[in-house]
Amino acid sequence: MTDLNPRDRYTSFAGIDCEGNANKIMDRLHQLIQAGRPEDRLVTYFTAKLAQQETLGQDALFFICSQINVIQALFDNCHDQEALDWLAQIEDECC
User: Fold this and answer.
1) Where are the alpha helices (DSSP H) in 3-40?
2) Would you say 33 and 43 are in contact if contact means Cβ atoms under 8 Å apart?
């Protein structure tokens, strides 16, 4: 089956909801951090990084693209396949 409206970030971001997809990932990230144990190194890491993001005024997409490997590690550790799929999509389409 051929996609009549292919999404290609190198041509245009038209048809790609980078902001909406970033917000989904950020929501999941916040949920996992709140559910995590305070002694978990990834929880500690993201607690500091999210505070830094807010201080610097970085948007969600910038944060995700700059932290993609660590976010992937967190989603892997939590066995969150849905979030991993979202992350792969945003990396492919938006980062």
Assistant:
1) 18-35
2) yes
pLDDT, tens digit, for every residue of 6-23? 555 555 667 788 999 999
With the C-alpha atoms ordered 77, 25, 14, 4, is the resulting torsion angle positive or negative?
positive
Question: How far from the centroid of its chain's Cα atoms is residue 41's Cα?
Answer: 18
Closest to 46 in 3D by CA, of 63, 56, 33, 60: 33
Average pLDDT of the residues of the chain: 86
- Which is nearest to 92 in space by CA: 26, 3, 7? 7
Q: Which residues contact 51 (CB under 8 A, 6 or more apart)?
A: none
Domain segments of the chain: what residues? 37-93
Residue 40 CA to residue 62 CA, distance in Å, equals: 24
- Please state, in angstroms and as integers, the Cα–Cα distance from residue 32 to each residue in 12, 16, 77, following that order: 32, 25, 10
Over the stretch 18-58, which tens digit does the pLDDT of each residue have? 999 999 999 999 998 888 776 688 888 998 999 999 899 98
